[in-house]
Amino acid sequence: MNKVRVGILGLGRWGMCHLEAFSSLGTAEVVAICDSSPERLERAGKEYGVANLISSADELVQRDDIDLISVVTFESHHLEPTLKALQSGKHVLVEKPVTTRPDEAKAMQEAAAASGRLLFPGHLLRFDPRYAAIKEAVLSDRVGAPVSMYLKRSREHYLFETFQRVHTVFELMIHDIDLAIWYAGCRVRSVKAYGRSVTDSGAASASPEVLWANLEFENGALAVLQSSWMTPDQAGVEIADAIEVIGRSGIAHFETSNSGLQFWNGQGRLTPDTNIHAKLHGQSVGCLREQLTYICRCISRGEDPVVISFADAVHGVEVADAIAKSCATGREVVLAESIEL
Known about the structure:
Layout: E1 4-9, H1 13-23, E2 28-34, H2 38-48, E3 52-54, H3 57-62, E4 68-71, H4 79-87, E5 91-95, H5 102-115, E6 119-122, H6 129-139, E7 146-156, H7 160-163, H8 168-184, E8 188-196, H9 202-206, E9 210-217, E10 222-231, E11 239-247, E12 251-255, E13 263-265, E14 268-270, E15 278-280, E16 283-285, H10 287-301, H11 310-329, E17 333-334
C-alpha cells in the first residue's frame, strides 16, 4: 500500500498534534506544512524532518505531490482552502467544527461531490474505543436503539479565553452533537437551548461558559447535552466528560474525571488525558492517530468512509446553528424552520 502524501495547513496547538500523529504513521508521509509564522514553520520542519515549508495556502493546495490536505486553521478560515484543495484534486480532512455556517458546510459537501474526492470531518471521538463500543452496543441487543442520551463535556476555565472566539456549541458541544446523531441514526427534529455567561462582557456574553441543549430526533429519541468551560484550573482535571445512553434493552455509561491515570504531588492532583492524543515510547497514540490511520486506509484503498460522515457533519452544523439561535432567542427551534436573529 502506497503512503498517503500529506500537506498540513495550520500549525497551532492542534495542527502540531496532526503533524506529530501523521509523522508516526507508516501509511503516511508529511510532504509539506504551511503556516503564516516563519518561526513556527522552521521549528516544526526541523523537529519532524519536513523539507517543504510553505507560507501560502494557495501554494500548498496546488502542489502535485500531495494526496491529502489537513485543514487545521481557525474555524472561519476552513471554507476557502477546502474548496481550493478539492478543486485541485486533493482529498481533504477538515478539523471540527468544519465551519460555523450551514451554507459553508453544504458548499464543502457539494464541492467534494463535484470533484470526486473524499472529504473527511475531524470528528475523532468516533475512533475512541469507549464511544465506539457504545455505538456497537446500540446496534446490538446489549443496549439497543436509544431512547434517551445524556452527554456532558467540561474543560478548564483558562481555555475559555482562547476559545470564546466562537460559540460554545461549535467548540465543545459539536462533539456531542455528532455522537448523538451517530447513535440515534437519524436527524434532529427540534432543539431548545439555554446558555449562561459567568463573564458578562463582549465576546464572552456571546459565547456562554455554560450551555445546555435538549434535542428531539425524528425517531423520538431524546438527547440532553451539557458543555461548559467551568472546570477550575486548580482541579487538575484536563477533561471532565460523561455519557449515558439508555436504549431499549440496556444502558451504556462512562465518566472520565474519576477514573484512569492520576498524579498526586505537592502541586496537587493531575488527571491528564491519554485517549485523544498522547505519546507512547516516542509514537503518537490515541483516537486522533486512529482517525488518521482510517483516513489513510480509505484513500489508499479508494473506499468511501463509513465510520465518519460529512453528511452527518453538515447536519451537525445545522443543529449547532439552531442551538445557538435557541440560546439567543429563548425559543425552541424546529430544524425545518429558519429563525432570523
